[in-house]
Design goal:
The structure is a single chain. By secondary structure, the protein is an all-alpha fold. It folds into two domains: 1-30; 32-185, no CATH class. The protein has helices at residues 3-26, 33-41, 45-60, 67-76, 79-104, 110-121, 123-130, 138-147, 152-185. The mean pLDDT is 82.
Amino acid sequence: MKDTSKKYLFYCFIVLNIIVVIYLYFNDYKIDPKTLKILFTTEYFLTSYVIYILILIIRGLTLLPGTAFLIAGIYVFSFIQVFFAIQIAIVSYCFIIYNFSHKLNFKVPQKILDYEHKIKAKEIPIIFTLCFIPGISINVLIYFLSITDVKLKNILIGIVSGTSITSMIYISIITGVFASTNYALN
C-alpha cells in the first residue's frame, strides 16, 4: 500500500470517529456504565470476558498503555477474573512476540548484544526484577529477551511471576480507589 493511500485511510478513520462522536453528542446518547456492567457480568459474561482477553492480547502487541484497559476490566469483572485475564493475555502475547521475533530476523544492534551475556548469567531473577520497574513495557522486554536468545521457558517464568505480583498490586490499588469513591459518593 502506498504511503499516500495509508495517509488518506488514516485521515478518513479519524474523520469517521469525529463524525460518530458528534452524532452521538447531538443525539444525547448516554452510556450507562451500571447497565453495561450488569449486561457483561450476567447474560454475556463469557463473550465479554473472551473479548476482554483478546483486547488485552492485542494491546500487548502494540505499545498502547494498559492502564485504561485495566481500569475498565476492574470495573466490569472481579479481582480474580481480571487477574487471570491479564495473565492469559501476557502468556499469549509472549508466545506471539517470541515466535515473530525469531521469524522476522532483525539485525540486532551491538549494544543489545552486549547485554546478552549479562542477562544469561541470571536470566529469571533479572527478568523478574525488570517487571517491577515502572515504565518498562513488558512486550518490549519480551522482544528484547527473544532477540538475545533467552529461552522461552525462562522468559515465561520471569515474566509471569513478576507480572502476577505487579498485577495484584495494581488491581488492589484500583479496586480500593473504586471502593473509596463509591463510599464517598454514597
